Amino acid sequence: MDETQVTVNDHAAAAFAEQSAGVVARRLNFGLADRRAALSRLESAIRQNEGALVAAMASDFGKPEAEVILTELVPVLQEIRHASRHLRRWMRPRRVAPTLVSLGTAARVRPEPRGVCLIIAPWNYPFSLAIGPLVSALAAGNSAIIKPSEMTPATSAVIARLVKDTFSPDLVTVIEGGVEVSQALLALPFDHIFFTGSPKVGKIVMAAASKTLASVTLELGGKSPAIVGQDADLKRAALWISFGKFANAGQTCIAPDHVFVHSSVKADFLTALRARVTKSYGEGFKSPHLTRIVNDRHAERLSDLLKDAVDKGAKVTFGGAAQDCRMSPTIIEAMTPEMEIDHEEIFGPILPIIVYEDIEEVTRRINERPKPLALYIFDKSLPRVDQIIAATSSGSVGVNLTMAQFTHTGLPFGGVNTSGIGAAHGLDGFRAFSHERAILSNHFSSLPMVFPPYTPGVKRLISVIKRILG
Ligand code: NAD
User: Fold this and answer.
1) DSSP letter at 372?
2) Which of 72, 237, 433, 468 keeps 20 to 30 A from 196, CA to CA?
3) What is the spatial distance between Cα 245 and Cα 291, in angstroms, rounded to a whole number?
């Protein structure tokens, strides 16, 4: 191990030790009022740093101010408000009705803080995906170490300063850096790891957690399909798919990756989609409303995906231009399974359109692939929508909309298998960071009547119990 890694490991271990030392004190003293106060301090810090965050995300990847406010700040502020409002109820132990065997006892479930938590965040929503989970971690009474993404360094620096100015490091601290920092942190015995990122790194995180048996929440990615059925409102489908795919330049985990469109409405849908994309991003890659691709590596990855598709017969029917780290909203047709773009999560502003005749072809194709994080269905026929939902699996479903399921604080947000394990947001986020401790208290339980020695009388009683309950 070289000297730098030793320093990184020491730094991670020291931060972890500092938070671990306070676990018992937090269990006893970090109650409703203190948790609400911590959330309120976080809210004020976000409001004070709004300008710095807007500037940082503009510098990191040209994210328009409106999009920073809408997709980074509002969701976190909303989470804070929702958690503060409901926290008293969430924290309250839940009574559980007695069963026949447990007559004479009292049962309750007490949500308890897990302890010291690790939050590892990706770059694509670098603020909300680092601080959103922190809201749930604090609401549930934990301390947390946050490792933001090294790919958005200006935003990471603002997050680090904001946290340093708001919390003492024994409650929340930020450790900036790349893979080496992540790995140093993952080697420590955290009580919970909340990871947002790619399925590939998700597997590395889960393998690391298996060494200490830390619980995990994995918010991962994949290819989320949209379906435009024969009865869809095509203008509405175009409006939402354009926003979902091209906001943040398609660098969104729940962006529609590709669209299945029924053959009978393909031409009209594409006309509506082109009109909508032109209205939103008329100047193509020069549009001030379009976020940049995060770095040269990803820009190259996207142009390679496009080139591979075109070389193998795909047609670019809209957009296609790119310069430096900017890429125009692009629509391609005639995608085939030989193309890499058919398998890799696109994570950029390229939208393949696939024509279908029979919805069963579509559900079969979805079911042959890893379970998506999101599935979008555009159709006015509710029975057909329900049929598609019933025939498939995905982390979430948007019906006649895209992306907005992320913003509903009452809905669990998460994937399924390769797109994720566990859920975030609101009560589900609180539960992810809590241990549901079962407590059974004896008042006058009659169970000792069946304790040994197993005399004939006891055995008769056990067989009566078996007859009633078995
Ligand atoms: P990533 O998996 O490459 O990186 C995420 C984090 O893991 C970063 O902080 C990074 O430093 C760290 N990391 C990278 N390699 C590591 C390694 N070998 N060992 C330990 N840690 C490592 O993901 P990304 O490129 O930042 O983000 C894009 C991916 O995240 C996409 O797949 C996207 O779908 C997914 N995503 C999912 C959600 C969700 O809520 N489900 C949200 C945003 C992004």
Assistant:
1) P
2) 237
3) 12
The residues carrying an active-site annotation are 219, 253
Peptide bond into 75 cis (omega under 30): no
Q: Name the one residue in this structure whose structure tokens are 């203190």.
A: 34
The answer to whether residue 385 scores a pLDDT higher than 70 is yes
pLDDT of residue 1: 67
Q: What is the pTM of this model?
A: 0.97
CATH of domain 225-408: 3.40.309.10
Domain extents in the chain: 3-220+421-437, 225-408
Query: CA 72 to CA 158: how far, in whole Å?
Result: 14
Q: Which amino acid is at 265?
A: V
Query: Which atom, in ligand 1's list, is nearest to the CA of 424?
Result: 40
Strand extents, DSSP E, 121-209: 143-147, 172-174, 192-196
Positions of E strands within 31-104: 94-96
Ligand 1: atom nearest CA of 253 is 34
Q: Return phi, psi of residue 352, to 5°.
A: -80, 140
- Tell me how far apart the alpha carbons of residues 124 and 180 are, in angstroms, rounded to a whole number: 20
Span from the CA of 77 to the centroid of ligand 1 (angstroms): 23
DSSP character for 437? E
Superfamily of domain 3-220+421-437: Aldehyde Dehydrogenase; Chain A, domain 1 (3.40.605.10)
Residue 181 contacts residue 147 (beta carbons within 8 Å):
yes
Return d(Cα 387, Cα 399) in angstroms, integer: 12
Nearest to 337 by CA among 377, 373, 369: 369
Distances 463 to 2, 104, 252, 446, 467 between C-alpha atoms, Å: 67, 21, 59, 16, 6
Q: Are 71 and 128 in contact (CB under 8 A)?
A: yes
What sign does the CA torsion over 292, 298, 302, 303 have? positive
Task: Name the residue of 149, 297, 302, 345 whose CB sits within 8 Å of the most ligand 1 atoms, as the mutation to test its pocket.
Answer: 149
Cα-based torsion angle of the residue sequence 417, 420, 421, 422 in order, rounded to the nearest 10 degrees: -140
What pLDDT, in 10s, does the model give residues 13-64?
Answer: 999 999 999 999 999 999 999 999 999 999 999 999 999 999 999 999 999 9
Instruction: Say which residues have a Cβ less than 8 Å from residue 413's Cβ, sequence separation at least 6.
Output: 219, 395, 396, 405, 406, 423, 424, 425, 428
What crossing angle do the helices spanning 179-186 and 199-212 adopt, rounded to 10°? 30
Q: What is the dihedral of CA 199, 202, 207, 212, to 10 degrees?
A: -160
